[in-house]
Automatic annotation (TrEMBL):
It comes from Rhodovulum iodosum. Its EC number is 6.3.2.1. PANTHER family: CYTIDYLATE KINASE/PANTOATE-BETA-ALANINE LIGASE, PANTOATE--BETA-ALANINE LIGASE. The reaction proceeds by a bi uni uni bi ping pong mechanism. Beta-alanine binds at Q63. Belongs to the pantothenate synthetase family. This is Pantothenate synthetase. It holds the Pfam family Pantoate_ligase. ATP binds at residues 32-39, 149-152, 178, 186-189. Its main location: cytoplasm. (R)-pantoate binds at Q63, Q155. One of its GO terms (molecular function) is ligase activity. The keyword Cytoplasm applies. Pathway: Cofactor biosynthesis; (R)-pantothenate biosynthesis; (R)-pantothenate from (R)-pantoate and beta-alanine: step 1/1.
Length: 283
């Protein structure tokens, strides 16, 4: 059975109030729809760790710095609801735009530090848009647990920081990246790749793994990252926006492997911007 789709905050509150006495833990899985197995892995984790699960679907205009990207973002709400049916989630909150940004809305949540550099440097205003909408969704749903993917690793760090800084009473749960068999991280934007570009796309993950493996094995950081960039371009990507080694917890730039770290990258292929990241596992 498909879950009810709630469009208004009053309906969400009424739904939430109906659970209050009987329910211990409510989880939220925030998404922008066009659901794939990556999103569904978050829903599965939420179902295992909560009594009630709300999935939100909202294509948030404030986090798109590029109007073409916003216009092209896939919107597939009916099939999204069908994909969620087997999970028996308790509610789908797909708010009308004015439920998030009512007339006169004038507030922005801005997280410094972790949102700077990486995607923050290439998508001006993006993380302010993400932090603002996530704060709003957490407050509207009043969930005790919220699930986010490590595929958007910098986003996960931004959300962890804002929740800590603002004392939002929610536990943030990070979930591993789900990949295709050839290693490409699942993303709603993958459908925009031509068949030829789709064949090339896994080179991003391969280069990340190669760089992380070399650094973990003691190779100097800068040449290992440079080799990664060259491999991505040689495979057919048109641009590497960044490929960097960062501290896993703070995202501070690292010139040497002196603490737990990740290698993160964004690159353009066939006009599509893809991101990915991997941990550097000490050998
Ligand atoms: N491959 C994946 N594995 C695990 N989680 C994922 C994956 N892809 C997306 N997610 C998570 O799902 C949530 C919603 O993401 P979103 O709706 O932006 O999907 P998306 O596929 O990441 O879209 P896009 O890549 O186009 O931005 C985020 O927490 C995101 O990290
Ligand atoms: C967290 C999120 C739903 C906020 O719009 C979005 O950035 C996403 O889908 O990753
Ligand atoms: N997955 C993060 C949402 C975005 O790219 O805007």
């Amino acid at each position: 059975m498909t879950a009810p789709i709630l469009r208004h905050l009053t309906d969400l509150r009424a739904c939430r109030a109906g659970w209050r006495d009987e329910v211990a833990t409510v989880a939220v899985v925030p998404t922008m729809g066009a659901l794939h197995q990556g999103h569904l892995s978050l829903v599965r984790a939420a179902k295992a760790q909560a009594d009630r699960v709300i999935v939100t679907i909202f294509v948030n205009p404030r986090q798109f710095e590029n109007t073409d990207d916003l216009a092209k973002y896939p919107r597939t709400e009916e099939t999204d609801a069908e994909k969620l049916a087997p999970f028996a989630v308790d509610a789908i909150y797909a708010p009308a735009p004015d439920q998030i940004y009512p007339e006169g809305f004038a507030t922005s949540v801005s997280v410094s530090g972790v949102s700077e550099g990486l995607c923050g440097a290439h998508r001006p205003g993006h993380f302010d848009g993400v932090a603002t909408v996530v704060t709003k969704l957490l407050l509207q749903t009043q969930a005790e647990r919220a699930f986010f993917g490590e595929k958007d690793y910098q986003q996960l760090m931004v959300v962890r920081r804002l929740v800590r800084d603002l004392d939002v009473p929610v536990e943030i749960v990070g979930c591993p990246t789900v990949r295709e068999d050839d290693g490409l991280a699942l993303s709603s934007r993958n459908v925009r790749l031509s068949p030829a570009a789709r064949a090339v796309a896994p080179a991003l993950y391969r280069a990340l793994k190669q760089a992380a493996g070399a650094i973990a094995g003691g190779a100097p950081v800068s040449p290992a990252l440079q080799a990664g960039r060259e491999a991505i371009l040689a495979a057919g990507y048109s641009e590497v926006e960044y490929l960097e080694l960062r501290a896993a917890g703070t995202l501070a730039p690292l010139a040497a492997l002196d603490r737990p770290a990740r290698v993160l990258a964004a690159a353009r292929l066939d006009g599509v911007r893809l991101i990915d990241n991997v941990p550097v596992l000490a050998v």
